[in-house]
Amino acid sequence: MARSEHGVKSIADLNEEHYKGYIVHLSEKGISEGHKINVETSLRLLEKGFLKRSERFESVSNRFEGFCPEKRLETRTRGLGAVPLYNWITQRE
Length: 93
Hints:
Blueprint: H1 2-6, H2 16-28, H3 33-57, H4 85-92
């Protein structure tokens, strides 16, 4: 999605807006909350691995900066009365 819609060619070009946009994209497709949580976990682990690799092999000026927000966007809301992410983001726009 980041490549086709935003022209991202490398993981180093990803940023937090791409991350958020992808989670919203999954919400619009009707993907389950549990699957979105799994996607976020996978993206966070991917970022963590690239950060470690960058620290080890790249110069300070060329270091990977990451793309995940500090806090998760999706959390279990079923039965808690919380507003799902997609509704929260679209209400703010």
